[in-house]
Design a protein that fits this description.
This protein has four domains: 193 residues, P-loop containing nucleotide triphosphate hydrolases (Rossmann fold), CATH 3.40.50; 194 residues, P-loop containing nucleotide triphosphate hydrolases (Rossmann fold, 3-Layer(aba) Sandwich), CATH 3.40.50.300; 105 residues, Arc Repressor Mutant, subunit A (Orthogonal Bundle); 79 residues, HRDC domain (DNA polymerase, domain 1), CATH 1.10.150. 45% of the residues lie in helices and 12% in strands. The strands form four sheets. It has a seven-stranded parallel sheet, sandwiched between helices. The protein has a six-stranded parallel sheet with strand order 8-13-12-9-11-10, with helices on both faces. Strand 15 and strand 16 form a beta hairpin. Helix 16 runs antiparallel to helix 17 and helix 20 packs across helix 22. 44% of the residues are buried. The structure holds adenosine-5'-diphosphate and zinc ion (ZN). Zinc ion binds next to helix 17 and helix 18.
Length: 601
């Protein structure tokens, strides 16, 4: 017996239509097919196995590498009235036995297990005795050594294809380049014809990048202008920076918690829990934070230092806006950061071939930071999607920089680097261009070089920006062995000879998030509905606290926003809201309807 997927979507999940390729993948699985689904974070992968799990007889076995992720999914599904359980090593023995018994008795629609448990003889024997609807292999890039998070135990999932050839296997991942995809297909015994790729774009994320000046102040004003009272993540490179930034934000009245690998395990877990369960915490963290965080309503992600690569940037920023509502990501970076990362690469002790790849990755990252065209286009084309139009939702689209013929400026800068001996950092070179009177200039007699004082038509800040741009264009390189001295790059010759033109960008003061003064306009709440929206949020937090679950498993912000706008007066109206299925209607209509009717404006 197979139930209608559209009906399940409406009755259980409370959604009226499938998105993107969901319907196609679901029909494929319902017809008994296996395959690989590559869809960006927030694209709606989970529904692609959850809906078939409910349509087909038997239990869906979901392989997931992280206990926190499993727990979150199970909690969300139970809120929807779905019979789901996890089986993992973090559980009490009694709960484990109960879950196994439920599984054996056919009382579960979905069961989440870690790969190492799935592969035990005991668990496989159990599966032999029951009806399995399908296997879903989440975070499938873990199968591949080419992926960024290889897990040896994923390798053995090969066994599923031979042991259960008739049961559909759906592998899912948000990040897999071509070699990784091939590897997954081979390892899991899938067919190359059954790869569903949904594209990389995250249209609801707005990309903002600014030169680093006073990083903390920049971040504070970013948060205050449009993200007050919202949950977000601020990434820093070092543990110390994490602690200091978090403390500072708290002093400025932004509720913030630190997270890094050096913190006591219990403190870390506690901070993570609060981030998930409260509505407006800013987590200041190293990149140790984020794996397995499925919080859908992270409204912003900030990088106070350059990420390691565009892949890393994409993954880290991808944690914003999983719920599909507008989100903003903000990166501040400076020339020093670049030098630091280059140094890190060069000193890594990695084989030359690998260093070369890493240099290329770094160049791509810098090109992205310095581009004068649409950020999204640059980002997506890096991932192989060249077909996108300018997006209208990044800083360069919203506030196009002025591009000018900067050949003369480039020549001045480069010859000044040359005249001063290719050993000084940007600060000193710019001092010379501006005709400064510093001790160093006097000491080295740099007031005598021909480039002394020839750069007064630009400000220091503009010169700094030009340095970064020339580095990004490989016309200058930063010496990574010592003090960040500038050298002429490989392509410098033709520019100095006047045989090649250089286009430069004028930086705007500081990338400003969109100007409109709007508190929650971003997530679609009109001015007049804000009071009610906040009241609904308070109701959600109270209900969540009673049950010890994160607020977003009760309703997503989008459901509350629709509630504030539509103001349903009875169960019928309430049932029409997106994200309200049968179980939630029954459980939550009453308390939320009471808030609406008690709210008189
Ligand atoms: P992924 O696992 O790909 O990161 P999720 O499965 O968590 O994405 O889905 C992201 C968000 O989109 C969730 O809030 C989910 O409820 C919502 N969503 C998914 N499919 C639909 C749909 N067809 N209609 C409305 N919302 C959807
Ligand atoms: Zn754009």
């Amino acid at each position: 017996m197979t139930l209608d997927p559209k009906q399940i979507l409406a009755d259980v999940f409370g959604f009226s239509a499938f998105r993107g390729r969901q319907e196609e993948v679901i029909s494929h699985v319902l017809a008994g097919g296996s395959g690989l689904l590559v869809m960006p974070t927030g694209g709606g992968k989970s529904l692609c196995y959850q809906v078939p799990a409910l349509c087909r007889d038997g239990v869906a076995v979901v392989v997931s590498p992280l206990i926190a992720l499993m727990q979150d999914q199970v909690t969300s599904l139970r809120q929807l009235g779905v019979r789901a359980a996890a089986i993992n090593s973090a559980m009490e023995f009694a709960d484990l036995v109960a879950a196994e018994n439920a599984l054996r008795a056919g009382e579960l629609d979905l069961v989440y297990v870690a790969p190492e448990r799935l592969l035990t003889d005991r668990f496989l024997a159990l599966l032999d005795d029951i009806k399995v609807a399908l296997f879903a292999i989440d975070e499938a890039h873990c199968v591949s050594q080419w992926g960024h998070d290889f897990r040896p135990e994923y390798r053995q999932l090969e066994l599923l294809a031979t042991r259960y050839p008739a049961i559909p296997r759906l592998a899912l991942t948000a990040t897999a380049d071509e070699p990784t995809r091939q590897d997954i297909v081979e390892r899991l015994g899938l067919s190359p014809d059954d790869v569903f790729i949904a594209g990389f774009d995250r249209p609801n994320i707005r990309y903002l990048i600014a030169p680093k000046e006073q990083a903390r102040k920049q971040v504070l004003s970013f948060i205050q202008n449009g993200h007050a009272g919202e949950a977000g993540i601020v990434y820093c490179l070092s543990r110390q920076a994490v602690e200091e930034t978090s403390a500072w934000l708290n002093e400025q009245g932004i509720m913030s918690l630190p997270y890094h690998a050096g913190l006591d395990r219990a403190i870390r877990a506690g901070n993570q829990d609060r981030f998930l369960k409260e509505d407006a915490i800013v987590m200041v963290a190293t990149i140790a934070f984020g794996m397995g965080i499925d919080k859908p309503d992270v409204r912003f992600v900030v990088h106070m230092d350059l990420p390691k690569s565009l892949e890393a940037y994409y993954q880290e920023t991808g944690r914003a806006g999983r719920d599909g509502l507008p989100a903003e990501v903000f990166l501040v970076y400076g020339a020093k950061d670049m030098a630091k990362i280059r140094q890190f690469t060069e000193n890594s002790g990695a084989p030359e071939a690998q260093k070369r790849i890493e240099r290329q990755k770094l160049d791509a990252l810098l090109g992205f930071c310095e581009t004068a065209s649409c950020r999204r286009q640059v980002l997506l084309s890096y991932f192989g999607e060249d077909e996108h139009e300018p997006c209208g939702n990044c800083d360069t689209c919203l506030n196009p920089p002025d591009v000018f013929d900067g050949t003369v400026a480039a020549q001045k800068l480069m010859s000044c680097v040359y005249r001063t001996g290719q050993m000084f950092g940007a600060g000193h070179v710019i001092d010379v261009l501006l005709g400064g009177n510093t001790e160093r200039i006097r000491k080295f007699g740099h007031d005598m070089v021909s480039t002394y004082g020839i750069g007064e038509e630009y400000t220091r800040r503009e010169w700094q920006s030009f340095v970064r741009q020339l580095v990004a264009q490989n016309l200058l390189t930063v010496d990574i062995t010592g003090h960040g001295g500038l050298h002429l790059g490989a392509e410098a010759g033709p520019v100095l000879k006047g045989a090649r033109q250089v286009m430069l960008r004028k930086d705007h003061a500081v990338a400003k998030p969109a100007k409109e003064k709007r508190k929650r306009a971003a997530i679609g709440v009109a001015e007049t509905d804000q009071g009610l929206f906040e009241a609904l949020r308070a109701c959600r937090v109270a209900l969540a606290r009673e049950q010890g679950v994160p607020p977003y498993v009760i309703f997503h912000d989008s459901t509350l926003a629709a509630m504030a706008a539509d103001r349903p007066r009875d169960q019928y109206g309430f049932a029409l809201l997106p994200g309200v299925g049968g179980a939630k209607l029954e459980r939550y209509a009453e308390p939320f309807l009471a808030v609406i009717s008690g709210h008189s404006s």
